[in-house]
Design a protein that fits this description.
alpha/beta; Ubiquitin-like (UB roll); Rossmann fold; six-stranded mixed β-sheet; 8 helices; 12 strands
């Protein structure tokens, strides 16, 4: 017994008792060896250097592209503003009837030799309209690489007014836009006898002129060709004086279409009449022979 006890104690001292050992962890794998850890650290360092190099290459490429873009922009600005490649060599005019090309070009003030892109088209249009009231509409365009085109629309005179031995042209909006030495051919004379009238105080001359033009532009073609004078005494008293001593009491400028239709029918029905009244188009009248 004493010997057995001694052997047991000896085994315990030598660490041979199986029950004293801790159980192995079934989920834990074997610890990595030293060489494997070194390989992993080296691979991580290599990957980091590769990523850094790629970022540097991308940054360098972006800087090169940016420098190229700046160079192209500078070259483009020089080509458009500083070189002789895109200068104004000619200024062309279209749409003029009474005005001349020389008048339009002079009023536009666009010198030959100016860089095409630096031409201020809005300013040129403003200069044209200010200097030439006959112009109703103006369009200034670039004709690459060496031209400027000016497209104009002139006002058309619908009536003319005598003034100091000359004639003032009046357009469809009642605007007095030019003074000419002779009455334009085929344009009726506007005579306004409104001084001291209630119509003048209430409406003003500009509005009364528009009413006269409104009446003149509503006439049937056959009557318009024979109209020599549009006489206005008040807003609702406009009389047309035709060839052959004929007259038409038109009234106001309102209901122009109805009055034109009524006048056409009335003239056909009473060919020998000399005086016509369509101021009330639903009840026209004629007289004289």
């Amino acid at each position: 017994m004493a010997g057995s006890t001694g052997r047991t104690k000896g085994a315990e001292r030598r660490g041979r008792n199986p029950a004293a050992r801790p159980p192995a962890d079934a989920d834990s794998g074997p610890a990595p060896s030293g060489s494997r850890g070194r390989r992993e650290r080296a691979a991580a360092r290599t990957g980091s250097r590769t990523r850094t190099r790629a970022r540097m290459l991308r940054l360098r490429a972006l800087l090169v592209l940016f420098a190229l873009a700046l160079g192209l922009a500078g070259f483009g600005a020089w080509a458009l503003y500083g070189s002789d490649w895109v200068l104004v060599e000619r200024v062309t005019v279209s749409g003029e009837k009474v005005l001349t090309e020389k008048q339009v070009r002079a009023a536009a003030g666009i010198p030959v030799g100016t860089p095409l892109l630096s031409v201020d088209r809005a300013a040129a249009q403003h200069r044209l309209k200010s200097a030439l009231p006959r112009l109703d509409d103006v369009r200034v365009v670039r004709a690459w690489p060496h031209g400027i085109g000016i497209e104009v629309t002139e006002r058309k005179p619908e009536l003319a007014m005598k003034h100091a031995g000359n004639f003032v042209e009046v357009d469809v909006e009642g605007v007095r836009f030019d003074v000419v030495p002779e009455q334009p051919k085929g344009v009726p004379l506007l005579v306004m006898e409104v001084e001291g009238s209630a119509g003048l105080r209430h409406f003003g001359k500009e509005r009364l002129r528009r009413e006269a033009v409104r009446a003149a532009t509503s006439l049937p073609d056959s009557v318009a060709r024979d109209t020599r004078t549009v006489r206005l005494r008040s807003y609702d008293s406009i009389t047309l004086e035709l060839t052959g001593g004929r007259t038409v009491l038109w009234g106001s400028g309102e209901q122009g279409r109805a009055k034109a239709e009524s006048l056409t029918a009335l003239m056909k029905a009473t060919e020998d009449a000399r005086h016509f009244d369509v101021s009330v188009p639903s009840a026209p009248a004629s007289s004289g022979s």
